[in-house]
Specification:
By secondary structure, this protein is mostly helical. The protein has one domain (3-67). It contains two helices and no strands. It has helices at residues 3-25, 36-67. Helix 1 packs antiparallel against helix 2 (36-67). The longest helix has 32 residues, at 36-67. 12% of the residues are buried.
Length: 68
């Protein structure tokens, strides 16, 4: 994996984890208008974003180890 590609993967993974934690940190089930489905969907979206970001980071780390 080239350095540019590794940097892009690392950056995209960082963005996914950032937005996942941003969503997870702002979930408030007691807000007026929040339904159970919307709260669960927010948790699922944030979990998926964090997992995708982790996969990007792991891919970058494995490519880095194999390269050197």
């Amino acid at each position: 994996m080239t350095n540019n590609r590794a940097l892009i993967f690392w950056f995209v993974g960082s963005l996914c984890i950032f937005f996942g934690t941003l969503i997870a940190g702002n979930i408030d089930p007691e807000i007026i208008g929040a339904t159970t489905i919307s709260v669960v969907l927010s948790y699922v979206i944030s979990f998926v974003l964090i997992m995708i970001g982790g996969m990007f980071w792991i891919t970058t780390a494995v490519a880095h180890v194999e390269e050197y």
